[in-house]
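Would you mind writing out the residues of a protein together with its fold in token form for me to study?
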Amino acid sequence: MGHFSNGFMNSSRNISEEKRILERQIEIYNKRFLEVYIVVSLICLIANLLIIFVTLKYKRLRQEKWNIIILNWAIINCPLILSAPITFGLTIYLTHLVGDSTFCFVNHTEYTLFLIDIILIVILTIYWYTKLYHTEKHKKFDQHIKCVLIFLYIFLIFLTALNIDACYNSRMFSVMGLVLIITYLAFILFMPIINIMHAVKKRRLIDYSNRKNVPFMLTNILFLSHLPGLLVVFTAPLLNLLTIQILMSVTFFIATLNPVYFLIVLYLCDRNYNIFLKHVFSCRCREYNDELVERPVSYNNGIENI
């Protein structure tokens, strides 16, 4: 009987020790994840601010309505990028200091911002598609695009009010989470359908250039950046815990870096963004007016004079 008791006690100590080691490993992992997350968020914030600054500064960019949609996407993405690490940090380190209502509000605000981000991407896709294939519908859409964006901000305020009411009046329902999941799944289904339709219809176009395709490139990049995470979720039952954690972290950062992808695509594939971003990067913004009128080039005996 004594040997049985000693064996049971030793087994309990081993389990407790293993549990402490596992908790320590999880704590270290969460700390490293948060550190990387903050760095990635700051990089994304800089990319968003560059897009916002260039679009607001140069009138030529705002003349193209899809750039207005991209501008609003970047504006909404900024607080989302900032709130996500805060939510994670509160979950890991400050749960005991922050009330349930406050945590609920921060978390639901993040859901709301992500929802608006997805809706803006869908609007950008529809705007690009109608401009390419449905001219008459596009003209009507183009006339009302500002109203659509205003309505979207009103919708954002309305959802925020709902979040406040739900979280601070002890009605912490998951309606926002449910709406987000439905919208996200609809987006995942919408993108393959629009890609197939585009692949079929683009053969009929006489003039089809990379410039016209930039908004669609952006929406597809965002769509593709989320696919690895979905793949990990669906294959999770086949993987061990450590592998799932690593893969989820990598795929999460891949999806988070969309502002950087957007900036790179706009710089490389859109001539206007390329010109204006070069001036921003070289700190020569004041040398040009809003229309960016370049100085004329003259030639004297074959020698270029500027």
About this structure: The domain at 2-305 is CATH 1.20.1070.10 (Rhopdopsin 7-helix transmembrane proteins). The CA atoms of residues 14 and 20 lie 10 Å apart. The longest strand covers residues 298-300. The chain is about 80% helix and 0% strand.
